[in-house]
Amino acid sequence: MFGYIIVNKAEMKFKEFDRYHAYYCGLCRKLREKYGVAGQLSLSYDMTFLLLLLTGLYEPETTVATCRCAAHPFERHEIRTNIFTEYIADMNVLFTCYKCKDDWEDEHKLTKLVYGKVLSGRSKELTEHYREKIRGISLTMQDFSDAEREGNAGIDTMAGLFGKVMAQITACKEDEWKENLYHMGFYLGKFIYLMDAYEDVEADIRKGTYNPLKKKYEEPDFEEECRTILIMMMSECCREFEKLPIFENVEILRNILYSGVWCRYEAVSGKRRGAGRKDKAGKSGNM
Question: Does residue 165 lie in a domain region?
């Protein structure tokens, strides 16, 4: 479900991309340190965005270092870490555990069951450290799973539940920025959920798995309606973002919010349009 909140590399300066990559690598390294290779596999661009967001807002002391890794074995590269790196790593693993459980219950994917159990075994101490946050996320994820199993919940209901999960992760402190961060995370989560449903709708129809966009897919205005909703969600997200006093990494964050998030959408919609043209051409040729 993750992988939609990405940079538009073509529109970034080299130094901005290098800095973004340094935070991404720092998060990867922290996941490996705390949760092993299993944790490292849960790394996502979406959570890297949240790390940059919280770093830009709270401006914590950040450690800059260099290292080699399996992905870059022949040269040292920069990594950046701070107190939010560990927080985001913890939240990333926590959410991945919930997602594995959901995938097992929905599709009985054995790999997800095993992977979830491995991560759960390595993240037991999170329950004590984030007791209230985990309780809130667990209740919301249970509502999400129940609604999914019932199969009759609308897109706004499902996206809203996922939005609440992202909101609780984004609002990491009880302070003056909690409300803005909560609302921003809420709309960001709704955008992610809708994008995932939009991309997977054809596969879910074939497999017979739940997708709240199945009924809308056959409607003539499906593409336009999805785009309109996505624009609305991201507009609200950006509105909350612009209220925050962020100066550090702000150009990277704006690249993601105003441009990067649409890269995957354009790829999916373009592929779908291409497939539609081929179908029409094939029918025309058979006449």
Answer: yes
| Residue 150 CB neighbour total at 10 angstroms | 9
Residue 47 to residues 40, 189, 192, 274, Cα–Cα distance (Å): 13, 11, 12, 31
Q: Nearest to residue 27, comparing CAs of 47, 57, 7, 5?
A: 47
Residue pLDDT, tens place only, 5-41: 999 999 999 999 999 999 999 999 999 998 888 888 8
How many whole angstroms separate alpha carbon 285 and alpha carbon 55? Answer: 57
> How many domains, the chain?
1
Cα separation values, 139 from 10, 100, 133, 145, 164, Å: 40, 16, 10, 10, 10
Domain assignment present for residue 195? The answer is yes
Q: Which domain holds residue 232?
A: 130-246
pLDDT score at 280? 43
CB count in 10 Å sphere of residue 257: 21
Question: 3 in a domain, yes or no?
Answer: no
Using alpha carbons, list the distances in angstroms from residue 6 to 10, 167, 197, 237.
12, 18, 17, 15
In the chain, beta strands by DSSP E: 63-67, 77-81
Location of structure tokens 């944790």: 39
Q: Are the beta carbons of 123 and 65 closer than 8 angstroms?
A: no
Residue 258 gets which letter from DSSP? I
Residue 11 lies in a domain: no
Residue with tokens 């909101």: 167
